[in-house]
Protein 1
Amino acid sequence: MQTYILLGKTSQSFATAMLNKPQNRRESVQPMLEAFGVEEIAFMFTNNPEFNFVGIIKAESDEVCEALVNVVFATDNFSKFVWNRAFDANDYQKVFELGQQNMASYVSSLKEAGLS
């Protein structure tokens, strides 16, 4: 399973609903996470003006994460909701090892134009 960081900015509709009936949203979304086969690592709200929700999940693929994010965004609870693939230090090292193995095959546009 891959790790993903979800960032969201709650909407006015979210604030209205929460003020009218305060609720634990983590408990409310659990059935949806289970339906997608997603494991929740963190589910937190912050005071950041750009993104005031942070979630960390494990999912089988980018497609699963994208589908989940689209469902959440469609609820109108968020004005922004994005995801990022997260890499631990060992996996990130492997990314650069792969790049190192294949970087000789790249020809820059400047080199191709005879300018470098």
Note: The two ends are 43 Å apart (CA to CA).
Protein 2
Amino acid sequence: MRVAFDIRPVTDPHGVGRYSRCLLQALRETAAPDAEIVETHRPRRADVLHSPWMDGAMLHSPCPMVVTLHDLTALKRRSEHLRTGVRPRLRQLAVQRAVRVIVPTEALARDALARLGLERERMDVIHEASDATMYPRAAQEVAEVRARFALPERYLLWVGGLQHPDPGKHVAQLAATPRELPLVLVGPTSPWAHELPDVILTGYVSDEHLAAIYTGAHALVVASEDEGFGLPAVEALACGTPVVACEVPALREVLERRATFVPAGDLQALIAAAEAPQRPAPPPPAWTWKDAARATWQVYQQAVAQTAGPCTTVRSLRRPSVGGTDRALTGSRWAPRGSQ
């Protein structure tokens, strides 16, 4: 099997970048002798194309396409996240044309069913995992990272992107919530983040430094009202750090009893619970990136098998009903279901 893997997001400092890097490495380590991975978003003579992000999905892929969805927050908060124009709709249309769609949780699969009209049988739930660099660091390494980033002895931690305000993450409200312990925000920033009150910003940090920051934290706080998976929470547990989160379906699915949950939106309860926990934290889920890679190889095989034979050029994909009419996509145009 020859797989074209879109590597454009590997340099992204957010979760999609970590997903792409970790999965690509694990795919190489678990590949069969006759399998080949080509790092490109322009597939040539490939058996399957994997776009590890929604933005890379092709409207007209020359081979069966697999797309990974990480979250659908933009669709849920359309007026705040999406620019006007046709580009968002084209991205959705491209995902609808994928043969298989990978999602990290059943919660996101339900969202994709409701928001994109994807059939559940075309979606594969494959959990993500913490990177091998995420493990409890020695006291000296923690002390060194504290000195490097001017961190206090005890602190609460939040990890994510801070380039622009994201209403669903509730970062500004979290910063304004009264607390006894300092709050450290880790992630790439833009000027708006430096206006947040009473927080410590580290900016972007390396994985080694992040693992030490996790290790030294009193607890990780997750204030989001929606998540596709919640990778920082899994990473924190891998570093021995307790996790306190607002109740959202994806986090509950992934963490189960490994985290302390508070009602969604109750940031005072979140801070109170985060300042209380004692170590050791529960271990992270046992799922690894090699497990994810093996499951992904199976998705590739299924995508190829689904499009084998004389009818590979025409596929029927469902979209959400418009005006009560169920329509299917044939080739590059919409046609009534059953017209094939």
Note: The chain has two domains: 2-129+289-336, 139-274.
Protein 3
Amino acid sequence: MEIHAWVMEMKLLERRLSPYEEKYGVLREDFYAALSSGKLTRYDEYDETRTDFARWKGIYETWRRRKQAYNEQLRQRGLTDVLRVLPAH
């Protein structure tokens, strides 16, 4: 996949993450760290949060994988080789 496609996909995923950040009032990284360390288990008993947290986690993990792939491709090819510059009008 080209680096531009990674960027576009990450932007779409970010749009899907934003409603959860707004609803729960924390950024995705902080949510994920708390969830991964077991600090959010008390919310497991609530259907809405359990469902939201599962979706939020899945979207964020997908975003992280895409970000990792983007970073790897950028590291391998370099910014000047992947930078998309549109012609001047």
Note: The mean pLDDT is 90.
